From TrEMBL, chains A, B:
E.C. numbers: 3.1.3.41
Entry protein name: 4-nitrophenylphosphatase
Pfam families recorded: Hydrolase_6, Hydrolase_like
SUPFAM superfamilies, alphabetized: HAD-like
Keyword annotations of the record: Hydrolase
Origin species: Phyllosticta citribraziliensis
Matching NCBIfam families: HAD-SF-IIA, PGP_euk
Catalytic activity: 4-nitrophenyl phosphate + H2O = 4-nitrophenol + phosphate + H(+)
Entry annotated with the keyword Nucleotidyltransferase: no
InterPro entries linked to this entry: HAD-like_sf, HAD-SF_hydro_IIA, HAD_sf, PGP_euk
Length: 305, 305
């Protein structure tokens, strides 16, 4: 694979790039915004793409938000989207559980380590669940919890799946429950495994870090339903019916976004430098992983020329 | 290395075993007790060893308790020990920070992810610290925390070390602080890295699992001051002045206790089957790690014959 082509400030290269694709898949955090800070000219860039008839899909690994929550975030930041253009890892996981895994009821209940975004998407797919934002689990572990988890009396006999994602309310009690289910043989799923979360212009522990205690304790790795898992690409394609060769993935992370596009055999990938990875990570020797985007730009807004 | 010798019920083998050693290093959880349940004949076995003039040292990776806390646990379970016979990973870490690492003040402050046992041992070694059981960190993360951690205003400029261990009160806010310090270049230490904690006859997430988010987020592994780290063996030997060739490590975990004894070139190791590992893990092909004890018994009390 050749070296990535740099687009910022190169109008002919930008026009050639835009002409190659009908569909753009966007990562959000690190591409459109960082936390609650929207990057300059984001809305204008998306408007330009729409005006050229491009299909836009916002593919996010953030599992704390449902698609409806995500739409609210777009609205608040002044970027017009529809709920159907948003495809999150929580939704991806719910679709996988309901339509692909299809465990026989009643043993198909999910124990959630995560926030309300996961719960909303499971509810939308009629998947029964416990855990999540349940207030009764937002407390310190007590001596009797150890006993009750150990003898199984605190565990729901119908739980057959542990679904983990980013949980800002993670605690030992929830981890102990989830580990109890995993030891009993529950299927281990993760919305995504991003190690870090871009927030406030820096990085915080991501979903992969919050799930790490379960991976370490159980010795098992979850099946991840977010980028770069191709289970997510298949689900996105199933819904949006795009031509992969005329589709470009735009993201800030080599090991999730760009890998997602390359392994999905999309027509192209564009790395923007407004998030996690820097150009040193993919130019020349790069970070040693060999994951290189086809194109790169300093920021998404540079596509406006 | 030959196959481990089985001692339970074999009186001549037991007597030969006892005659080979002057000092016995004991793991506690899984050997003497499981959680608050003491195994039968524990006190009598220790008494028998003392009556034969053996030196006993209780080497535990449990960092939630100080040596003084541990003595209370022995007292409560009816096993006579002195504080000086107890050597915990929290103590080991405090000794390492104060006497070996010796960062120049004032940049030698420790951010603790862990319980009061770590705090007590740091205090005993005059090591300044924050975090730990600080009530102001036992709360949900708020939007301003992200900003204040990101811009550094919530971080103590003097913290040069992150010391992580088992924390039953782990939460996202503490993990975010610890990760903030690690990103700033703090030295990453762990009391121990046991993936699981034996409690109530089963396993719960251990120190290694609670530290895992920091390992995943930072991409760095901590220097561990508990078994099987030889930093701990050196510290134990420095304090107790034993002859390694006449010393036996007794434990239930191959990857911590038995490895600790083998890598420390002790005269012998004894695996008891009352904890994590089963004999299938080390007989014949075993678990594939090649870690084999020299001796094994069903339980510690079998040494009574």
């Amino acid at each position: 694979m050749g070296e990535p082509r740099y687009l910022s400030g190169d109008q002919p290269a930008i026009e050639e790039f835009l002409a190659k694709f009908d569909t753009f898949l966007f990562d959000c955090d690190g591409v459109l915004w960082s936390g609650d800070h929207i990057f300059p000219r984001t809305a204008e860039t998306l408007e330009m793409l729409r005006s050229k008839g491009k299909q836009l899909v916002f593919v996010t690994n953030n599992s704390t938000k449902s698609r409806a929550d995500y739409k609210k975030k777009f609205d608040k930041l002044g970027v017009p989207v529809t709920v159907d253009e948003v495809f999150g890892s929580a939704y991806s996981a719910a679709v996988y559980i309901a339509r692909i895994l299809k465990l026989p009821a009643p043993k198909n209940k999910v124990f959630v380590l995560g926030e309300s975004g996961i719960e909303e998407e499971l509810r939308a797919e009629n998947v029964p669940f416990i855990g999540g934002t349940d207030a009764s689990l937002r407390r310190d572990i007590e001596p009797e919890d150890f006993t009750n988890i150990a003898d199984g009396s605190a565990l729901d006999p119908d739980v057959g799946i542990v679904l983990a994602g980013l949980d800002f309310h993670v605690n030992y009690l929830k981890l102990a429950h989830a580990f109890g289910y995993l030891k009993r043989g529950a299927t281990f799923l993760a919305t995504n495994t991003d190690s870090t979360l871009p927030m406030a212009h820096t990085l915080f522990p991501g979903a992969g870090s919050i799930e790490a205690p379960l991976v370490t304790a159980s010795g098992k790795s979850p099946l991840a339903l977010g980028k770069p898992s191709q289970a997510m690409m298949d689900a996105v394609e199933g819904k949006f019916k795009f031509d992969r060769s005329r589709t470009c993935m735009i993201g800030d992370r080599l090991n999730t976004d760009i890998r997602f596009g390359i392994e999905g055999q999309l027509g192209g990938t564009l790395a923007v430098l407004s998030g996690v990875n820097k150009k040193e990570d993919f130019l020349g020797e790069g970070d040693g992983t060999g994951v290189k985007p086809a194109f790169y730009a300093d920021k998404l807004g540079d596509l406006l020329g």
